[in-house]
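hey so i finally got around to running the thing on that chain from the lab meeting. sorry it took forever, my laptop kept dying and i had to restart like 3 times. anyway pasting the input first so we r on the same page abt which one it is
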Amino acid sequence: MASGEVTQQHGDVAVAGATSALPVGTVVTNSGRISATRFPGQVPTTPPFSRDELIGLDDALKDASEKALVRFSVYIGDLGADPVADARQILLRAPEPANGALIAVSPNTHDTVVVSGVRVADRVNDRVAQLGVTAAVTSFRQGNLIDGLIAALRVMSTAAAPS
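ok and heres what got predicted. didnt touch it at all, straight out
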């Protein structure tokens, strides 16, 4: 995809197995988010974001999840030749994937994909995904990935909140 182009998808993500299969150094927090560590020597050894940016993103994930009653997750990294299929596989590894929504961003290819679980697909639909991605694009183009993700989470959670 060219820079700035967007892909969104929602729908039929099934429930994955129990979270007991998480890798060593990974836990599910009280809010249901996954927190993971890296062993010495694993690449990258430090996150590309500041502590304040990570705290802001963490707060936005928590707030969005509570507001919309959807387990929002964010993935930043390479997505393969089929970004939507890869995003679905990533969502399957999240807690309660049927009740979740994932914003996946591949910075190198400029792909942004939103997928949602089967139980929330009616609320986190194509329209909501487009609203979120539109809210993020300006910050993404300015090189502010975290700001864009926070904006997307805020807009999507407002649009997906139960009536």
